[in-house]
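Holo prediction — NAP.
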Amino acid sequence: MPHPYVLLSAAVSLDGHLDDAGPERLLLSGPADLDRVDEVRASVDAILVGAGTIRADNPRLLVNSPERRAARVAAGRPAHPLKVAVSGSGDLDPAARFWHTGGEKILYTTDQGAERARALGIAADVVPLGPALDWRRLLSHLHDERGVRRLMAEGGGQVHTQLLTQGLADELQLVLAPLLVGDPDAPRLFGPGAYQRGRLRLVETRRIEDVVLMRYEPTAPGTGATVSAADRHWLALACELAGRCPPSRTAFSVGAVVVAADGTELARGHSREGGDAVAHAEEAALAKLDPTDPRLATATVYSSLEPCARRASRPAPCARLILDAGVRRVVTAWREPDTFVPDADGTGVLTAHGAQVLVLSEYEDRAKAPNRHLLG
Ligand SMILES: NC(=O)c1ccc[n+]([C@@H]2O[C@H](COP(=O)([O-])OP(=O)(O)OC[C@H]3O[C@@H](n4cnc5c(N)ncnc54)[C@H](OP(=O)(O)O)[C@@H]3O)[C@@H](O)[C@H]2O)c1
């Protein structure tokens, strides 16, 4: 199910705290960074926080700049993004500012929490998600029922920890403030959890007065049929590589990336790479790898087009090369049409041998873009 793009936003002290343990909210950012946060808020469809943040900070979570609100309205959007709260208990203060400022509000909760929230008269659309709160269901609901395409999660630590460990965060915008809290009772940005083992990708650093903004993207593929945000990033890269292929009238332009379970890129390739007129993307990528690399058994192959099941130009089709490499998870954007090979079914070949194939059709247009001339 498609999800919104999920951006985690937080400011932390040098010792990793979101706040101190006192009653007042600790100010970590300065005016310029708060203005940057306002700009990000103005760019999203919805802002999400956990009940802990509503209780601790009583935030409004508005777009503060009148110019930014006016620009949103001029673009046909509400002045403020949808405000989203998450609570298991439903035990929230109905007088909190969150409910009485800005535009629409939605509270995701459990069946029991919904009863409690309704009894308290919480001024929001109360959506129960079952006996327990399921983040994937929440994100699908926001996407499908509320049209949310970009979601900014503004904390707190429990919310960020779950979105990151469950592979649901597309991006982390972290501001590091030059102060130390030093109190073991103060809330931390990330709690214990099953995080991805490898490194995140650093996409930007920016000095803003005396704080530093760092933007990271998680890189770890999902497991089995579970799609992670990083799966979408890698598939988008495969589609981008497809656009770099030398054009052909007799073969598709395809990009492929092989990624280890910890998020390390192992190899990439594209059709007709290196002047080889018949090279396929997956073949080009796999050829760069040591076939005994133990990471292949848990790696994922991302290919903009379903790996081929039959080919005239070489003895082994790409579905076979992937199986022989030991890879058992493939993510693709587009099933192969009958343009060159009738009834091509690379997915059938792969799944018949125990591989998982996921088709993320929201990337199909990107995968087709460099192949339009072949599609009539
Ligand atoms: N520096 C920053 O950028 C920043 C930003 C935001 C917040 N903060 C700070 O962060 C602190 C609050 O963080 P926090 O970690 O304590 O709280 P939080 O993440 O804001 O909220 C946690 C609450 O959300 C609900 N929740 C989250 N996941 C759930 C799930 N899977 N199932 C059911 N309910 C779930 C629960 O509500 P119920 O208890 O109602 O069940 C839980 O107690 C505050 O001190 C605040 O100042 C700092």
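READOUT: The longest helix spans residues 229-242.
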